[in-house]
């Protein structure tokens, strides 16, 4: 299978999972068992830890690039993209709902960053740097914003315990 075809399939899977998450959230559909678990403080914290580890792993690609670890970055790039497909599922396990206030902001930025990731220039078959540079700026900027709001969320959760 050609690279472009594989990348388009990955993008379609990612967009489909993202659309499924948004659809269930907007329609108020719930998996009762999971909704009941998400009310439990312990479950929320442990799925939050899993989500935090997931986000930290996704940051390894940027870290390896900044540190000049070319071999690790090249290997990590494929892991980053494949694990990016799981982003809606990991988020769903932690929160069925989009939330309100700053949690709605966090959810929106997280989901928007997923969409940006799925429309990567390679998956669209676009080679010009005219698209690649703004795409990278948007993806990294959204990632940084997610990190800042997640830090606030963690502080908020433990401060108001």
Summarize the structure.
With 161 residues, this protein is mainly α. The protein has helices at 3-27, 32-39, 41-66, 70-84, 87-94, 102-118, 121-124, 129-159.
- In percent, how helical is the residue content? over 70%
Structural class: mainly alpha
Shape: globular
Termini separation: 52 Å
The counted number of beta strands is 0
Q: How confident is the prediction overall: mean pLDDT?
A: 91
Give the low-confidence spans: none
Report the sheet with the most strands, covering strand number, pairing sense and barrel closure: none
- Count of helical stretches: 8
Q: Strand portion, in percent?
A: under 5%
Order of helices and strands: HHHHHHHH
Computed over alpha carbons, the radius of gyration is 17 Å
Describe this structure in words.
With 161 residues, the chain is mainly alpha-helical. 83% of the residues lie in helices and 0% in strands. The protein has eight helices and no strands.
